Fold:
Amino acid sequence: MKKLINSAENVLADALRGVAAAHPELTVDYENRVVISNAPREGRVALISGGGSGHEPLHSGFVGAGMLDAACAGEVFTSPTPDQMLAAAQAVDSGAGVLFIVKNYTGDVLNFEMAAELAADEGIASESVIVADDVAVKDSTWTAGRRGVGTTLLVEKIAGAAAAEGKSLAEVKAVAEHVASQGRSMGVALTSCTVPAVGHPSFDLPEDEMEMGVGIHGEPGRTRVPLAPARDIARDLVEAITGDLDFTGAPVIALLTGLGGTPLIELYVTYADIADALAEKGITVARSLVGDYVTSLDMAGCSLTLLRADDELLRLWDAPVNTSALRWGV
Amino acid sequence: MADAATTDVVTLEILDRWVRLGAARLDAEAERLTALDSAIGDADHGTNMHRGFAAIVAKLDAAPPQTLAEFFKAVGMTLVSKVGGASGSLYGTLFLDMGKNAPDGTSMSAAEWNRVLAAGVAGVVGRGHAEPGDKTMIDAFTPAVAALDDAVAHGASLADAAAAAATAAERGSADTEPLVARKGRASYLGERSVGHIDPGSASTALLLRAFADALAGEAA
Structure:
């Protein structure tokens, strides 16, 4: 294992020190491992997300004006705990309530559920939205349901804009749920990732194979297939996503995130083919974002997210945002 | 209840001995639990449970609980904040709900222990929505509570009832091997989860056996 770390045990604590050093506009609560925005939030709904670490910039990179008010960091690939989430809620609630944005993994869901109960005991009103957008997982009552991936960023941005406009907790939750229901994602891994505390790759993936539909913790996908050119991968991702939801006749927001170990030039190569594949299907991309946004440590590969938007969602998407990883209109 | 021998009540002292014995056994078996978890999960169940119970021991040393309710709450909150993931919230809920249903004071009868454990397990079901056969800790807890119900109804001693519950949990855990996981991360594997024992059911069986042994006087 070759990593830029001091010790595997202290990766999260050391990274939080770096976040604080690099971003004076954020406050880091080291004890509770919560990153808090210094932007004003008096009287409006506050947004809190969080999850296992290793997906940066998700979530701490999206803390700031127009997006999240706080992010709770768990250990690498491990859900944060309810006491962290309660500390976050206490830090950012200004009386209008908090919205928890949760990726659909059992640990995250259960811990945020307990946090909501603890918050209620403290007199803090909260609502939760669960993002479950990974089409690689069959959505059935016989599984934990679809995993939450790229749509999470879109929910955080759009709900953040709604909160910034002073909408009520119920209204912000409705916007967040609408976005969550209209987003679909699928990823592909060219290599495994290596969890620092484990020290070796999470799974074996031969040099000439790739995992279609991989999860952002290295969970198995739909199929393992021979490595193919970017244009074939682009087509497969587009086919899987558009086969699950009709994206024609509406403006679409497209997010192509790298998984941490793929250079931007390769993401653009892939995005060119994705844009072609979408155009062939008569799908109109109104906004797009290409880069490392929802990652899986050092995994090579990418994940495509499409959101079936409308004029109102585009307006909220375009609203000013000022975070370390997403910034425009300011 | 005519025979009020010490072994027929669960005391704070026995509970303290239980979680310390549980911590020692989780330490000894952390690798086995983690190996079970690496087959169908994310390879951290042993490490996480061991970390949680080590934190419980530290907490009990620092501030010994004075009542049953305090004991269960301290254990539950520590598990919630130190174990993380699904296991932390599920085991945390178990102990927190046991605390909410514990009788006042510092000891409870076999029937009360039965009721308290059943309430905790009901809390776990309410939190995780697992049913028997989903390949989870519920597959160990459900037969354990049933065995406890049965033993208490037939007037068995507390020691015999606890031993029967532990045996039922061990059997329930072993019986998860041929099941398809329907909850948690293992459910993504579908049919590929067959042929492996659920790690959560294994730690449940370990803890219930430790309880029976602690009652019988064994200490860490």
Observations:
- The beta strands of chain B are 9-11, 107-109.
- The CA atoms of residues 27 and 218 of chain B lie 16 Å apart.
- The first helix of chain B runs from residue 12 to 40.
- Chain B touches chain A at residues 42-44, 48, 77, 80-82, 84-90, 92-93, 127-128, 180, 182-185, 187-190, 192 (CB under 8 Å).
